[in-house]
Amino acid sequence: MALIDDLDETQAPLVEHLTELRSRLVRALVFLAAGFAICLPFADIIFGWLVLPLTKAFPDGQGQLIFTKLYEQFFVDIKVALFAGFLLSFPFIANQLWSFVAPGLYAREKKAFLPFLLATPILFLSGASLAYFVVMPTAFEYFLSFQGERGGLTVEALPAVGEYLALVMRFIIVFGLSFLLPVLLLLLNRAGIVERAQLARARRYVIVGIVALAAIVTPPDVFSQVLLAVPLLILFEGSLLLMRLSERRKAKQAREDASIASEESP
User: Rounded to whole angstroms, how far apart are CA atoms 211 and 232?
Assistant: First the structure.
């Protein structure tokens, strides 16, 4: 009988956590649906912003987007609204995640996580901005350079709206998520999973991994790969620098605590 009571006591917190998780997920979906509903009437305008890098890559007055399926443009508008709605509602979705995790953390842990919460949207927007303002115009100009005469026939770029949207979303998401590398490394370091010395010793392998990652996730042109690999390498080295500063601060604090303890001891 006591065993059954113990099981009931351990299951109760689990049920409460699952209920809380379900509530947070429902609220996150509500925020996503609200963002989608807000962005859907402006899907044409948003897609107009997304198509600007391609418009500027074409010569003035030239270039067009086509759709080969009657329903393609409709689904493009839906995807645009969903994509923009997710970006719009992401702070609220992240707040739901934080509200679920925060009660299980100590005050010191909450304070330690706060910089990571603030850095995440900033780094993601930085990566997305790099993709939108620098990488995509450069890549599109490179792709369009293949237009011309081939074997007596005219080779002309006629991108489809669906394929173009998929490419743009790939650029933005890949660069945005890749710029979260410092957050991931610093969290792993803070959790004691990896140490700065380990990452420093594995620098050559990290460089190879970053270059390989850039080659896999970006379109097959060297410009996009370089424009992703170089910032990631800089962010990696910046993460090591922040880890070094954190280690020095902890060492200084430990020395001060030891000094105070020695002074207080008889």
Answer: 9
CA nearest to 146, candidates 138, 155, 137 = 155
User: What's the sign of the alpha-carbon dihedral 17, 19, 20, 22?
Assistant: positive
Per-residue three-class SS string for 146-186: CCEEECCEEECCCCEHHHHHHHHHHHHHHHHHHCCHHHHHH
Q: What is the pLDDT of residues 55-109, one digit of tens each?
A: 998 888 788 899 988 999 999 999 999 999 998 998 888 888 888 777 776 677 6
Q: Which two tokens stand for residue 151?
A: 């074997």
Q: Which two tokens stand for residue 203?
A: 């620098």
Count the Cβ atoms, other than its own, within 10 Å of residue 138: 17
At residue 184, φ and ψ (nearest 5 deg) are -65, -50
232 touches 178 (CB < 8 A): yes
